[in-house]
Amino acid sequence: MSALKGHLEAKGLTAGYGQTRIIEGISLSAPAGSRIALLGRNGVGKTTTLASLVGQTRRHAGTLTLDGVDLTELSASRRAELGLGYVPQTRDIFRSLSVEENLVTGLKGRPRAALEEAYAMFPRLKERRRNGGGALSGGEQQMLSVARALLGQPSVLLLDEPLEGLAPVICDQLMQVLTTLKMTIILVEQQVDRALDFAEQVIFLERGRVMHQGAVADVRNDHALTERFLGVDLVEQTGTGA
Ligand SMILES: Nc1ncnc2c1ncn2[C@@H]1O[C@H](COP(=O)(O)OP(=O)(O)OP(=O)(O)O)[C@@H](O)[C@H]1O
């Protein structure tokens, strides 16, 4: 059996939109199979970081490798083919296509029978497979967006605020599914508690830079860290303190 793939390594990534640099010198290492929460206050560059990893921003400096393969100069579509899966904050599903047609766009040449993987993961999508993407609830749209990314069999999955606007029970279901996945996952999420329950490592961003990378366990107990980078005292907020 081959070793687990999905070791993503960024070094000194500086990128933005046009001439504007939003992230500066981002270095991060996501070992194969690791789960990383990318956190920070609004506007610090979390979305831009994910978009830069998948090749959707303008790069000014830095390098990116996946399992030693240099992705730096590769297009977004080539990066996707090589294993980067992306679920953007906008859940970019096709509203005029049915659920099943949306899923088919994620197959990337795989046989249609692979759709059953998506339906097994999210039975709700099977029930709704003939419905238009635009007729789905927010939770169903998010399931569709995640399922479509997974059909491409990525070795790294980048998720941008997947829980935004979803009811708590749907958040529970989605996180439950994500927990079963055997791949590298980088999660941007405003629901910090859920992100920390899910991840092993945390990266804090501030003004487009990585300010801290460490184990979740250390972050949970460090009031100063969470207060500084998130503006919340997690220990107080969740009542898990002394
Ligand atoms: N397409 C764009 N063109 C120009 N500037 C942009 C664009 N998208 C984002 N920005 C700017 O980049 C900065 C970082 O935004 P980004 O969305 O990456 O942060 P974020 O940490 O994900 O924020 P949030 O938590 O609010 O989603 C912001 O100042 C934002 O205005």
Automatic annotation (TrEMBL):
Gene3D superfamilies: P-loop containing nucleotide triphosphate hydrolases
UniProt-recorded name of the protein: ABC transporter ATP-binding protein
Listed InterPro entries: AAA+_ATPase, ABC_transporter-like_ATP-bd, ABC_transporter-like_CS, BCAA_Transport_ATP-bd_LivF, P-loop_NTPase
Keyword ATP-binding tagged: yes
ABC transporter domain location: 8-232
PANTHER family xref list: ABC TRANSPORTER ATP-BINDING PROTEIN, HIGH-AFFINITY BRANCHED-CHAIN AMINO ACID TRANSPORT ATP-BINDING PROTEIN LIVF
Keywords, ordered alphabetically: Amino-acid transport, ATP-binding, Nucleotide-binding, Transport
Superkingdom of the source species: Bacteria
Family membership noted in the UniProt record: Belongs to the ABC transporter superfamily.
GO BP annotations listed: L-amino acid transport
GO molecular function, one term: branched-chain amino acid transmembrane transporter activity
Species in which this protein is naturally found: Elstera cyanobacteriorum
